[in-house]
Amino acid sequence: MTDASAPAPRRPGEQALATLGLAAPADHPADASAHAFPDGGRWRTEIPSVEGPECLAEVLKESSRLDVPVHRISQGSGVWMLSDADITEMTDACAARDIELCLFTGPRGTWDTGASTRTDSGGAGLRARGHSALAGCVEDAVRATELGVKCLLVADEGVLWTLHRLRAQGVLPADITFKVSALIGPVNPASYSVFERLGADSVNIPSDLTLAQLTEIRRTSRAPMDLYIEAPDDLGGYVRMYEAAELIRRGSPLYIKFGLSKSPGIYPYGAQMRETALSSARERVRRGRLVLDLLIRHGADGGMSPLGSRLPGPLSRFSLTDDTDDITDTTDTTDTTDTKD
Fold first, then answer.
1. To 5 degrees, how large is the angle CA 29–CA 31–CA 33?
2. Are 128 and 136 in contact (CB under 8 A)?
3. How many CA atoms lie within 13 A of 198 on its CB side?
4. pLDDT tens digits, residue range 26-36?
5. 42 in helix, strand or coil?
């Protein structure tokens, strides 16, 4: 339902610039995404880098204080850096608020024995090196889902395809979702579609993609996007608050992520980073409030998914048949009715 008292949608600085003859060109309808989440919403919210129960408690407290709606909480250090008690506490706390909890899977190249990630070329980046790292990611996935986690973050195409196949076989729950990390995020429509077909349920694109590039991706794929409105420094430190409404218009269905620039990296997290992690968690929520206020001022805050929504809807997948060399597009037939957990 539309609020009759809400301001008409407008662009930043629109009226003032028009008086100087500097009005922006009209939006082109073809630039807008034709897709939405299955609940009809066009955008959801995510607080990233919530590294344990104590950080989560700060996020939940601050989100209540500042009235910041949260659809998803994500963590970056990995399942293997949390105890069973930690995971259970986090899943219970998120379930009580109808928030999806997303934990990162297993060993990855930046913390492995190989030195290639520390060369100028960056080597293979975060990818899982060797069978042992792949196995560690699978072990993390099985353990996390047995403890009630319903979303897993991956940083390797092979890990994604493996987990998707395990989901299809019933080894992992049918309603588990897989989120692709920003550090391997695709930068063109073809690569974005490949991640969708490998099993991704949302794909974190790099925060420096242009508005036109978002539109190009949306013309080939309906898989939800994840995008930092404010990116951490190791992802460029971009702050795109004034573009939030247009990012939603072009990128829908879109998770808007409230990151934090000018903040030290905290992965892998431990008690030695406690004060930084807690203060950063609180500030991410405050940054989210700033973005939401901006959307309200511009009359662009409509279309948010209901809280508790988490599933992506039907997506295109590669065939899971092993006895053929042909790879074909298939529609995921998993029940994607959006329900609150």
1. 95
2. yes
3. 23
4. 888 889 999 99
5. coil
